[in-house]
Amino acid sequence: MTKKLILASSSPRRKELLKQVKIPFAFRKQDIDESLINTSDPLEKVQQLSLLKGNVPIEHKDEVILSADTVVSYNQKIFEKPKNKEDAIQMLTALSGDVHEVYTGVMIRSVDNEIVFAERTKVEFWPLTKDEIEWYISTNEPYDKAGAYGIQGIGAMFVKQIIGDYYNVMGLPISRVVRELRKFGVYPEESFIKGNN
Fold first, then answer.
1. pTM of the entire structure?
2. C-alpha closest to that of 67 among 76, 56, 58, 75
3. Fewer CB within 10 Å: C terminus or N terminus of the chain?
């Protein structure tokens, strides 16, 4: 029997990626206090936050919960969503002309199974001018994105190269997530894979 996926995240990018690979899902979210996770290790932080975000109730035995969290790390410092314009300027100025890392932690849970994993992608920025940074911030794109930029939006023009999963930078390493969800009985609509199991 195909299980029902419940997305415990309000991220429009994660919703978009699940729709892109034709995995049907419902949405269930609760407010959490992210300050409960105070580790400075980005790998640990995204995994712990994905666990915290995914702590929503399973209401039916055929449900599978998916949650995720993404941070940017530069020189051992975690960059989350900027709090204000000054914060965004500081982040983008730091990332300019250098390489940073993007970590996304993922938790998948059913009534009888749970996995947590994280993916890392390296991103290199072109050198950015002060005017470029100011203009980009004026678009308001940076404010709901870790590291103050969106690779799938206007921020794409800052990216010189990436090493790893592009979609991980968007907020969900979708190809691995699809493969892990299969183990929980969650498949794309009209999937050819279902018949092989």
1. 0.91
2. 56
3. N
